[in-house]
Design a protein that fits this description.
This protein is α/β, with parallel strands linked by helices. The chain folds into two domains: 216 residues, UDP-N-acetylmuramoyl-L-alanine:D-glutamate ligase (3-Layer(aba) Sandwich), CATH 3.40.1190.10; 151 residues, Protein-Tyrosine Phosphatase, Chain A. It contains 17 helices and 14 strands. Helix 13 links the parallel strand 12 and strand 13. The N and C termini lie far apart (74 Å).
Length: 441
């Protein structure tokens, strides 16, 4: 046989081997999914990671052996006892990561999977639902303006884009409260033969929120309670599971630090980066701010997030001016963002550029914060994005000030007090057996 002939045979064999491996992988993946009693796919614009964690907590506490996976500020796999492991990636994240997570973590005895949607483009979202997750229950947390390049310019288009993750003959849960968007999601669910449920935040009491040690939203808790009711898990068990769940790295924890003799409340609000979520959060935060505090907003702009920079530059004069006494800019686009805020009516003398145009030291940033605070107390709110050199210096500084109280989500997830009730009973039984064995020896 000629060299060309051998090459053709080799290519044919290689193709057959690749196809065979792909086929075996797909069959194995489907088998793992089929063993699950509950599969939940969490989509939406805001709150996906938080809701994924809350739902996993509900299922664990309700007696389901549950694995969860978040994408969020820090990608995590959450094991059957609530223990967390970081996801290490060698390259850029892709939706095929979800298949590997199922392969590694959905073994014998696992009954439920809660997985956050990674995809943005509708085609990839549809592939994720139909071939990777095949959920019984899909959550669309809300519909907001974000990722318009991929999902559409209008809220209706964005709702339709996310609706491709609604299961066939399953359930859709949403906390989206605008009637016209609710109706659109309802129609999209019915077109797929699925039932529609609105997670009404009115069912969440103030005392329910006091079980969280961070800022939690009623909409997210309402989704957890709605899913629990559908699965036959009682309200108190569902709440207990949500309280035990470890929050995402991006949650808002309100802590106060001393900066140059001033008491400064730090509000890391980087995870909320659409207009509606930010405005709602500011309204909610007013009750927590110290009286007469100077409020400083940080616009932390990444070079690869130009559209968000434009959005927040427009929001400051239009929506946030009543809340913000001053604005500091970090990262990129300082000249453009400043010009936009001034053109919108925000006073130029209240804008302070400390980003890539100036390369400030940490001392200069801290001095500026202290100088802007007129009284004894202030509030510093981080917005837009989390990763720039200036923001990371500030975050690291606050982490050092926190010292031993620093929040370690991985360690917190292994706290025995957070174990689901079934795991606690097993642990106690194991302890009793160990005591009996020692006594018998």
């Amino acid at each position: 046989m000629s060299a060309a002939g051998w090459s053709i045979v080799f290519i044919a064999l290689l193709t057959a081997a690749v196809f065979g491996y792909w086929r075996v992988s797909i069959v194995s993946h489907q088998r793992r999914l089929d063993q699950l009693q509950v599969r939940v796919h969490v989509n939406g614009i805001r709150g996906k990671s938080s809701v994924t964690r809350l739902l996993a907590g509900v299922l664990r506490e309700g007696g389901y052996v549950t694995v969860a996976k978040t994408t969020g500020s820090a990608a995590r796999v959450i094991g059957t006892h609530g223990e967390e492991s970081p996801i290490k990636r060698r390259g850029a994240a892709t939706i095929n990561e979800q298949i590997e997570i199922v392969r590694q973590h959905v073994g014998d005895g696992v009954e439920a999977l809660v997985i956050e949607c990674m995809a943005v483009r509708p085609l990839y979202q549809e592939y994720s639902q139909d071939f990777i997750v095949r959920s019984d229950i899909t959550v669309i947390t809300n519909v907001r303006e974000d990722h318009q390049e991929e999902m559409g310019e209008t809220l209706e288009e964005i709702a339709d884009s996310m609706s491709v993750t609604i299961p066939r003959d399953g359930v859709l849960i949403t906390a989206e409260n605008r009637p016209y968007l609710q109706e659109r999601l309802r129609r999209n669910a019915e077109a797929r033969g699925s039932r529609f449920y609105y997670a009404d935040p009115a069912q969440v009491l103030e005392e329910d929120l006091r079980g969280f040690d961070y800022l939690q939203f009623k909409d997210n808790v309402a989704i957890g309670l709605t899913a629990a009711k559908l699965l036959g898990i009682d309200r108190q068990t569902a709440l207990r599971g949500m309280w035990k769940s470890v929050p995402d790295v991006g949650v808002v924890r309100l802590r106060t630090y001393e900066i140059r003799g001033k008491k400064v409340m730090w509000v890391p609000m980087f995870a909320a980066n659409d207009r509606e979520s930010v405005v709602v959060t500011y309204e909610l935060l007013q009750a927590y701010f110290p009286p007469d505090a100077t409020v400083i907003g940080i616009l932390n702009n990444r070079l690869d997030r130009g559209r968000r920079a434009e959005l927040f530059a427009a929001m400051v004069p239009r929506d946030l001016a009543p809340y913000l006494h001053h604005v500091m800019t970090f990262g990129a686009y300082e000249d453009t963002v400043t010009a936009s805020m001034v053109a919108g009516g925000y006073p130029a003398e209240r804008i302070h550029n400390l980003g890539e145009n100036h390369h400030p030291t940490l001392d200069r940033i801290l001095d500026t914060i202290a100088d802007l605070i007129e009284g004894e107390s202030g509030v510093l709110v981080g917005m837009v994005n989390i990763h720039t050199h200036q923001a990371e210096m500030l975050i690291d500084h606050f982490a050092q000030l926190l010292g031993e109280e620093h929040d370690d989500e991985i360690a917190a997830s292994r706290d025995p007090a957070r174990l689901p009730m079934a795991s606690q009973r097993m642990l106690r039984a194991s302890g009793r057996r160990s005591q009996m064995d020692r006594g018998g020896g």
